UniProtKB/TrEMBL annotation:
A GO BP annotation: cell-cell adhesion
All residue ranges annotated as the Intercellular adhesion molecule N-terminal domain in the record: 42-129
UniProt entry keywords in alphabetical sequence: Cell adhesion, Disulfide bond, Glycoprotein, Immunoglobulin domain, Membrane, Repeat, Signal, Transmembrane, Transmembrane helix
The protein, known as: Intercellular adhesion molecule 4 (Landsteiner-Wiener blood group)
GO cellular component: plasma membrane
Segments passing through the bilayer: 235-256
Amino acid sequence: MGSLLLVSLLLLLSPSHPRGGSARRRRGARTQSPGGSSHPSFWVRLSPDFKAVPLGGSVWLNCSSSCPLPEGSSLRTELRRGETLSGPRWVSYQLLDVRAWSSDVHCSVTCAGETRGATARITTYKQPSSVILEPPVLVGSDYTLRCHVTHVFPVGFFVVTLRRGGRVIYSESLERFTGLDLANVTLTYLLPSRPGDSGQPVTCHARLNLDGLVVLSSSAPVTLPVPAWSPASKALASTSIAAFVGIFLVVGALCLRKYLSMQSPA
């Protein structure tokens, strides 16, 4: 059966975040110096090189190198910085209140006059505030199922799924929605009714997948209602009952007549 998907955008999360892009990892553990020289015994790593952070959350990045006596280390980012910790050949940086969809963070280390660096990518996401499945409505021979997923980001990485009794009845990816705004999603689906459907539990699920990070939110179960009898069905049932009662009375009268005839004296 057909489905209808409605996405309404809310207030922009961060006016400074880049448009477009994806959650794909960018690995930049080892790079050459800006001058293009090579130092095979000197490498720089920034880990983790990819991290998905809940909207407004924080993250620690560790910049390390193989340089025995680093002359200096620096971090370049548009994100808000917090604490800094350091040790032999490593420096850890804290990034606070992450709200930009996709940010590249660059770490540089200078060793024996040569500067090399590494890059990490930080993305953010917003788990649904709620997943609500309206009580199903039976119209004709179809159940109307309507699921609301509120305050999600980024929409294009979500999949909305409907289940009946634990089995998937419909699933739709939102990947065609490439906007980077907080949004509400409403999925409407027409489910053909079948014998035995009444009383079955139905649930709605919103699944976010960011390069292996999976976040699942689910609605409370609702039950499919018992089909209401149409006027034609009621008339047919009434006719059938009347016919049955009539047949019962005729059979009863015949049996009574036969019984009385058997009881009369010869």
